[in-house]
Structure formats: structure tokens, C-alpha cells
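Render this sequence as a predicted structure.
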Amino acid sequence: MKEKIIAKAGEMFLKLGFKSITMDDIAGEMCISKKTIYKYFCNKEILIEESVHLIHKEVHQLIGDAISKNYNAIEENFEIRRMFAELFKSSDTSPIFQLKKHYPEIYKNTLKFQIDECEFCFRQNIEKGIEQKLYRNNLNVETYVKFYYYLIFSINENTRSESEAKKLECEALEYHTRAMATPEGIIELEKQLQNVNI
């Protein structure tokens, strides 16, 4: 039951916002009593923390799935972006923006995981792109990892609207890729941009 509550709460938080969803809403949606929820979670903050942890696991799985498909480095980034858009498609406001604004302690506690996960993925992608001759071989990999990380997180932390955040993320991905790309990489980038749905 605990896992079901976490899964349903996470789904509702992403769709309608961390602040607006109450324990009553979750109980009503699941056709259980609020008392049942409180049996497992002493307050809403604990439930949010558990839900965010589950969402992180889903994101990790999603990135792993994209990487396992052996796309080239540029295609891989666009595929991950598409999968993220699908995962967060029902959100009106950016989940990261909501968490930072309404639950800063939870946000701060989850930030380290996000940083480690993202930096690892960005680094892996850049190294792969260099090997494939899609990115220039004289890049300072650590600098580009940091640039892209700050760019993406600045967008998500400071953009209230999820649809606006998605547009900005797509532009950031194009900007990041163009900055690193070889002539072959630019050809691949243009191909990917033709298939983008914002």
C-alpha cells in the first residue's frame, strides 16, 4: 500500500503541483481514508520526499533506457529531452520550480542527487560525441558539463511555466550542441531539429 500511495502522490504532484495537492485529494483519488495515508506518512512533506525519490528513480531509468538504445550522442540528447517532455507532459508549472519555491528544504536535499546524476550523463554524452567525431576533440569536457548543467537548472529553477521551460530547454540544447559540434555534428543537429515537437 505504501508504494501505491507514493506512486499516486507523485503522479498527482507532477500533474497539479506539490503545493495544491492535499492528503485529502490523494485519499479521495485512491478511494482510501486519510488515516491510511497517515499510517505510512506522518505528514505531507515526508510523502513529497518519498515521491520525489521515486520520480528520481524513474528519471534514472528513463536516461538508462535512452543510453541503451545506442543512439549517436546528439540523437541521444534529443531522445532524452523527448522522454522528459513525455514524463512531465501533464505539468502546468515546472516541478523543480514548485519544489524550490514551496518546499526549499526538500529541494535542497534532492539537489545533490540531481547534480551527480546530470553531470555524469552530460560528461558521458560529451565523451561519446567526441569519440563519434560529432563534437570537437579539443573541448574542455568539465567546463562544458558545468555550462550545460547551469543552463538547464537555471531554466527549471526560475521558469514557472512547464511549457515555457520546455521551449527554453530545447533552445539550450541547440545552443550547447552548436558550441561543441564538428561540421558532421551540425548536420546531425539540423536533422534532429527538424523532428522537434515543443
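Summary. The chain has ten helices and no strands. Residues 35 and 175 are 50 Å apart (CA to CA).
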